[in-house]
Amino acid sequence: MNDKERVRSYLQSTANLQFFEVYTFENKDFQAGILAADKAIEASLNGITDTTAKADTTKALANKNPLLRTVQFTQPFQGKNGQFTFPAEIGYTLKKDTAILNAYLAMPEVRSKFPANLVFMYGKVESEDPKTKDVLPLYAIKTLDNGTAELEGDHVANAAQDFDERGKVAIKMNMDKIGTSIWGKMTTRNIGKPIAIVLDNIVYSAPNVNDAITTGNSQISGNYSLKTAQDLAQILESGKLPAPAKIVQEQQVGPTLGKASIQGGAMSFGIAFLVIFALMLLYFNTGGWVANIALILNLLFTIGILSALGFTLTAPGIAGLVLTIGMAVDTNVIIFERIKEELTKGKSYQLAVTDGYKRSMSPVLDAHVTTLLTACILAYFGLGPVLGFATTQIIGILLSLFCGILVSRLITDIYTSKNRHFEYFTAISRNIFKHASFKFIEFRKYAYMLSAVVLVMGVASFYNGFDEGVEFAGGRSYTVKFKNAVNTEEVRDALKVVFGEAPIIKTVDTKNQINITTSYKIQEQGNNIDQEVEALLYKGLAKQLPANTSFKEFETDYKQSSQTVLPTISDDLKAGATKATIFALIAICLYIFIRFRDWRYSLGTIFSLLHDIFVTLIVFSFLRKVVPFPLEIDQHFIAAILTVIGFSMNDTVIVYDRIREDSQLMKGSDNATIINKAINQTLSRTIMTSLTVFLTILILFIFGGEVTRGFAFAMLIGVITGTYSSIFVAAPVLVDFAKNRPLGKAEDKKK
Asked: What is the pTM of this model?
C-alpha cells in the first residue's frame, strides 16, 4: 500500500464493534442537560460559587456560553409529512477544539447534568473537502447501566463490502443466533430512531431504523469511501483483538530501492547457484550430478513451500535462499567425502556407498540439528525481515536433510542397481588432502595465545563502541538518492542546523546515495511529527537538490526509503538479541553434551563459539570507520551471529563425530594422536563445506546490495573464524581437559 495512514489505521484497529442507542435533542431532559452543562462550565471558568459574585466582567463575557461556542449543535428538520426528525449526531466541533471539549465534558459538575449511562463519542469523517475535513460530529451514546454495549461485534458472523440500494458504498453484515436475537429487540424498539454503529469508540454510522431486523442480516450505510469500507469489512471479519496495536517500528521502501535490492538478490542467487553447481562437478566428478539434482529439488521445494505459505519476496528472504544454496550441498559433501574415504580403503563402490551413507548419518544429523536450533531461536526472537530469513533457513535445512539423504540415496541406488556407479574423484580431488598429516594439536599453544588476544580485543570492543542501526538505537532513518555525488560533511552540517543535532550519515552503494539517521523528536508520535521531520529533511537537503525541486518531487523521486523505530522497540530488540544469543549457546551446548555424553565436548563448544562471536564483534567495532560500507549492530547482525554459531557447530561436530569414532577404534593411543588424525581425516570435508558457504556468501556480499551487505560481511568473517575455531580451539580443548582419560562414554562402541 502507498497510503501510509490507511495502513496505520488498519493495523491499530482492534475491531471492537459495538451497537448503541443514542440520545438526541428529541429528549427534553437531554436538551435541559446541555443548557445546564453550559451554565456549569461557564460558572467554573468564571470562578463563580454560591458565595461569590462575578469579580471580572471582561473575563465573564469571554467565558459566556463556552459549550455552545465549542460545539455547533444540530437542529431538527421537518420532513415531507410535517414531522420533525432529530439527527443522530447532537452537534459538530473542530478537531482542534476536541481537547478543550473533552476537558469540559469531563468536569464532575458537567457529568452530573447528564444521565449516568451517557457517553460522548466522536464520529468518523471521510470528507476531503478542506472546509469540512477537520469537522467532527459529536454523538451522545446511551450505554447499559454497567457502561457496556447491548450488542457487541463478536456476534458478527461475517462481513463484506457491498453497495446499498442507492448504489452507495456499504458494508453487509450477518450475525450469529445470539446477535440476531439482540439485534431484533434493539431495532424493534428503535424504529424511526438512530442506532450508532461504533468501532473502537468512533461512531462510523448512525442510521435510522426503518423496520425491525429479525433475520440478523444487516447493512451498514454511511459516507464511506470504497477503500474504507473494504478495510472496515476486513477488520470486522478478522474479529476483535484484545488491545490496539501500537506502531513502534515503521519502514517504507520505495520501488527504486526495493527493485534494486531484489535484482541484486536475484543476481546473487543465480551466480551462487551456477558456482556451486560447477564446483560439485569439478570436485566430485559424476557424483556431483547427484548433489546438483538434490540442490535443484531443495530449491524448488523451498520456493514452493514459501509460495504456498504466502510469504512475500524480500531481500533477506533471498539472502536466506542464497545461504540455502551453500548449505544444501553440505549433506552431500559430508556423505561423498566419506564414500571417497571408504573407496580409498579399497572397498567396492557398492559397499563404499553403503558404508559412506551409514557412517555419515551421525555427523550429518548433528551438523544440521545444531544449525536448525539456532535458526529456530532466530525465528522465535526475530522480527519482520529477519523472521523471513530464519523461516527460509529452517525450511532449507529440513529439505537439505530430505534431499541429501533420501533423494541422493535413491538416485544412487537406482543407478548402481544397473551395475553402474558414479565417479567421486577428479584429478583435483583425488590427491588433495589425501595424505594430510598436519600436527594441529602441536600448535595449540600458539592458537591459545591468539585466542587470548581475541578475548582481550573482544572485551575492548565494548569500550571502543559499535555503530548501532536504527533498529537498536531508535530513530528515523531515510535513504536518499541524488542525481550526483554529494559531500556527506556538507549534508551533515546542513541537517545539524535544521534538526539541532548532527545526524548519522553513511554512503549507500554509491556516492550519490546516502542514509540519514536522526533521533529528532523520536519520543513523539503521530503523522504530523513524521511530516515535520521529513519537511526539515527536505529543507536541510535543499542545496543538494536541483533548483525549484518541490517537497512532493523530493518524496517521490529522491527519497528511496524510510524507517522509524521508537526507543521502546529498540530496547526490546536489544534484550531479545541478547536472549537469542544466550539461548542459542545454551541449546547447542546441551545438545552436544547429550549427543557426546562428555562435558569436555561442551566446554570445547563454548570456547569455540565465544571465539567466533568475539572475532565478529572485534571486526564490527574496530573496522566500522575503515571499510567503505556500514557495519552496524542491528537485526541482520544478530541473524548473522546466530547463523555463524550454527555454521561453526556444523564444522565442529564433524570433527567431534570423527574424534568419537576414532577414540573407539584407536584404543591405547593418546588423545592428541586421535584428535590429530580425526582433524586430518575430516579436513577435506571441513574445507569443502566451508568453501561452498563462503562462496555463496561472498557472491551475496558483492552482488546482493546494501540491504544484506552487513549480514553477508559478518557471515564471511564467521565462516573463516568458524573453520579456524573448530580445528584450533574446539578440538585442542579436549586434549588439555581430557589429558589421558578416554573421550566419550563406553556406549559409543556401537559406532
From this structure: 0.60
